[in-house]
Amino acid sequence: MARVLAVDIGTSSIRATIYGSALKPSRPALPVRYRWRVGRDGSVEAPPAVIERALAQAIDAALDGVRMRIDAVAIAAFWHSLLGVDAHGRALTPVVPWTDTRSAAQVARLRETLDERAIHGRTGCRIHATYWPARIRWFADHDARAFRRVRRWLSLPAYLEQRWLGRHAESRSQASGTGMFLHESGTWDEELCRACGITPAHLGRIVDLDDTAGAPSAAVARRWPQLKEARWIPAIGDGAANNLGAGCTAAGRAALMIGTSGALRQMWPATAAPAVPFGLWRYWLDRRRVIVGGALSNGGNFVAWMRQTLGLPYTLKDEARLARLAPDAHGLTVLPFLAGERSPDYPVDTAAVIAGLRLATTRDEILRAGLESIGYRFLEVMDDLASVAGITRLVATGTALTASRVWPQILADVLGRPLALPRESELTSRGAAIVGFEQLGLMSQAPEPRIARVFHADARSHGVYVAAASRHQAMLRALTPVLT
Prior knowledge:
Blueprint: E1 3-9, E2 13-20, E3 32-33, E4 37-38, E5 44-45, H1 48-63, E6 72-77, E7 83-85, H2 104-113, H3 116-123, H4 132-142, H5 144-149, E8 152-154, H6 156-165, E9 169-171, H7 172-175, H8 190-196, E10 205-207, H9 218-223, E11 231-237, H10 238-245, E12 253-258, E13 262-269, E14 281-286, E15 289-296, H11 300-309, H12 316-324, E16 333-335, E17 353-355, H13 363-388, E18 393-397, H14 399-402, H15 406-415, E19 419-422, H16 427-439, E20 451-455, H17 459-483
Parallel strand pairs: 1-6, 6-11, 9-10, 12-18, 18-19
Antiparallel strand pairs: 1-2, 2-3, 4-5, 7-8, 12-13, 13-15, 14-15, 16-17, 19-20
Helix pairs in contact: 2-4, 4-8, 10-16, 13-15, 13-17, 15-17
């Protein structure tokens, strides 16, 4: 029986799991957590060695006591990571994730000098701190010495593949999330390279998932002999893997994910992919499949902040109290932009707001208002997606969402559509495993995940939330000059 080691590199933890062809994990994956350094200037970064060590520990745990050979290693990693290396492949910068917002000034300057709509049409990405151009410009402006020494800018998974496998390439999936990838030609955008002060040679070659270059180093083979003969598949974006694992691969189906951040995504055959509205992005899984959607910079991270900083508890007992509160009955308007924001307006920089607080306001009301505010952000994204094609089925994914019973109901009511909750919890890992079996030629159509529960929208609550979403938008428009 063939086996795939699926690895999920998230922005807060890493999981590794062995799957058989029935897509059942051999054992539960234990997350290996790591931390980012967060600065008041908007910086978020981590030494690559810290994440590499966490990855190795996750693989150690997955292979502990396993003697059989693994046939393929499939990695799903968060999109938009960036670091620079020298001519010998040594890291000259920390890893910078999508949450880093310190390049806001560079975003503004690039928007002044470039045609953002034309760039979005070519790359499927806006000019924003999420993507590489502004961050590379930040290094040129603030760390000129490192910038001059960098011989290649690359994603975190490409850096790891370079070190572990000797593969010097960026996968199409990861490249498509950089903001510098041309959809038509599958190459790097030369105008953006010039704007960053680099050339396409600084970004390396782009490969698809069938690339077989590279082999495990002697150190990797010694540490994990089970992987010595395995095929290591170029890393895909975690959002693409999540859609695949959730069975959201057909028209009308969308995956609604809340982990650290949030996203609402549809997958299309490349030959039938629609034109993308300016508020949405377009990335790739491989040369055959395109991902269209919108991403929120705030999801589970906003809830975690409310719990840790405001001291708001969130247990099953607390959920029971939250469920008894009527929709938007608290009089609060929340803009949950602790980590800035992305879709659909892509503000250069913004901040969070909790407005309407009174002496009678309770902590449960603040928490519920925060959960509802994330729903309003998804409602805007869904309106853009619905203009491309109808959404008939929403599938809930992401640990921050699937661990709750109140939040999925709130989202179903806000969006006015049923929200299906799968039994399987690790859908990104499942999607990576599917890619592994596809590349081994052992899977052409993956079975859909089993559904544990469907949350149906309440029409009256939906009406209340649509009105509240309008108030949310009005406050955002009024405060944008102050918050940025």
